[in-house]
Structure prediction request, 339 residues.
Amino acid sequence: MSNQVTINNRKDGRSFVQSAQDSILRAALRAGVGLSYECNSGGCGSCKFELVDGQIQSLWPDAPGLTERDKKRGRHLACQCRAVGDVTIAAPSGAEYVPRLAPGRQAARLVEVRDITHDMKEFRFVAADNANFLAGQFAMLELPGVTGSRAYSMSNTANDRREWHFQIRRVLHGQGTRVLFDQLAVGDVVELDGPYGLAYLRNDTPRDIVCVAGGSGLPPMISIARGAAEAGLLGERTLYFFYGARTPRDVCGEDMLRELEGYGSRIRYIPVVSLPEAPDSWQGATGYVHDQLQGVLPGALIDYEFYFAGPPPMTQAVQELLMVGHKVQFGQIHFDRFF
Prediction:
């Protein structure tokens, strides 16, 4: 395979160049071409395309975002395929997928690890170049000994210190978190590729902001809250921050919000526990986090701007509640699907 090949998209007439280390999707986004996508890691299926002409290499043949029916119909995932020579594809695209900030690769050195809960840590990296990203976005990390890159959301905001902070929950049998939690040491260097993601903070809406985080969905919502405070959006608006945890010891995030101007007045924190360990062990809300929205928010749900991140059942439930149950416009709902 040559170092660079040309990819032509029959659906929109655009062409772009792919380098040897890129997937078709990443090559498109680096070139400013808006191919449809969400997770960039093979799980959601948003980047499906058809191969019209040429040859491709599958980076993950068993990626869950591609069903057996998709395979029989000749569909592929742009985030998990690499062109071998010039190719023509038929892929959905749109202006909304064009990156506001072009993603780039750079080395990043681990400088600090902080405990958040019993199974969640914050990993702080200093990159070789910049830390230019939008609040709520994510990056891809190439970890030693792990096949394929891993997507992790930033919890901080863009800065001139070149710092990228990732709050990561240990996943049972997870190869990526095993390396991060058990092997990676301060001073080690990894490759960071980003930023990616469409669920970034919108500064141009006057509506109050609602952040809903479940489990490991904490970091992008913390980034959204920090970004809103830094941008001065909370002078006239209120931010409601819902966090869904399994047990009381999993509850986290409030200490980070307390550091922001307006906490307690313009920033409200609402933790929800689904499995309290004992009747007296938790005095707050219980149940599913999305069930608390209607009881806490003082206005109709159609009057808010929503951001959410968490396990797929939670994000699906929130989406259905808003769009089906309350007719909230799709343009007011921002989330990236991860599996």
Remarks:
- The CA atoms of residues 251 and 323 lie 28 Å apart.
- The longest strand covers residues 104-117.
